[in-house]
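Reagents: none. Just compute today. Bleomycin resistance protein.
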Amino acid sequence: MIASQVVQPKISESKPASTLVRFEHINLSTRNIKAMQEFYQILFPDWYIRAEGTGWMHLGNNQFYISLFEEPEAPQRSHQPYASIGFNHIGFVVTDGAAIQKTLEASAIKYEIVHDAPETKCRIYLFDPDSNELELIEYLDAYPLK
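Predicted 3D structure written out:
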């Protein structure tokens, strides 16, 4: 979808009971909390430990965080992305896809670039240490929904 094709939602005449303020966090179980922390801080160097305790950590910035719970003996998840019900990937908007690519290469993190969306400069797909798929998106400056 390009900017000229953006469809604006209809605004209801009645006031909704509540509205979304922002997306706050994602809660993930992990086998290795330290490996997850290191990985996400490579991707997002501005992220810091917002709170932590025995076996858990909130890692993020002032707007968003990932809540990590360490379960070293947990079985690998049975969800198959795009083949079963559940989350397929988590998308993060970034400001500089080329810089992220350099960071990934310097850190020997495998990734794939997809160039099939006209509203984006760059879409990078990769997996975190627990095989959760991530999408890092850099939108075109003119795209109104970025």
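The two ends are 12 Å apart (CA to CA).
Action item: order primers for follow-up constructs.
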